[in-house]
Amino acid sequence: MGDMDDDDDHDDEGGDGEALADQQMTTVSRHAFGDSERTAFSISIIENMKEDYGLFVWPCSIILAEYVWQQRLRFSGNRVVELGAGTCLPGLVAAKVGSFVTLTDDANRLEVLANMRRVCDLNNLNCEVLGLTWGVWDASIFSLHPQIILGADVLYDARAFDDLFAAVAFLLQSNPGSVFITTYHNRSGHHLIEFLMVKWGLKCVKLLDGFSLLPSNKAARLNGNIQLAEIVLNHERIEETFSSGAG
């Protein structure tokens, strides 16, 4: 009996230790938006440094959020969906400037979705949080009809590119005139991206150096080669693409 009690105590300590480790890896970062003279508002983000959580504010997210702020008049009053949102900084900025925002991430990433809800509460923002897995065509995707789709660093795993572009094409098709705005590291894989954009009837209408969008104080803290792209339906190809099921 003594040995069993010792084992139980040891197991409890292990569980407590893991919980403490998770807590120690959790932090709250603050991200300010405004001009050189004043800060208009700041967003607080709950981050967790564990790799499997996907809860870290990456440079692509900071750049896309800054772009939303700079384009705030364009976003105000529009329906916005953020794909693969993670810590969801761009979507939260969109909500702050008056967008009606739906934050999405893989439906299987329950911890990420729960963190999104906590972050919305922390910032007093009323965003819908939705599990949306690229390539899974359930009821959730059919009711969105966004005018603007956001995606920060969603072009990192080539195995997911086809499902991502399929989802983007469907959402753009559901609301003519809508746009997908994404930031991504300029890595290899451009040929695959270009091929899939053609396959799904998409075209890039704007391509910017991500760091050119940042104020100097933010740019100094980041590194990488990041681009921002605006992608829309290629109306010359869209009817052919969807009628053939994109091959």
From TrEMBL:
Gene3D superfamilies from the UniProt entry: Vaccinia Virus protein VP39
UniProt keywords, alphabetically: Methyltransferase, S-adenosyl-L-methionine, Transferase
Record has Transferase as a keyword: yes
GO molecular function: methyltransferase activity
Compositional bias segments (type: Acidic residues): 1-16
Entry keyword S-adenosyl-L-methionine: yes
Residue ranges that the Swiss-Prot or TrEMBL entry lists as coiled coil: none
Residues covered by region (Disordered): 1-22
Family: Belongs to the methyltransferase superfamily. METTL23 family.
Protein name: Methyltransferase-like protein 23 isoform X1
Taxonomic source organism: Theobroma cacao (Cacao)
Record lineage: Eukaryota, Viridiplantae, Streptophyta, Embryophyta, Tracheophyta
Name of the encoding gene: LOC18610718
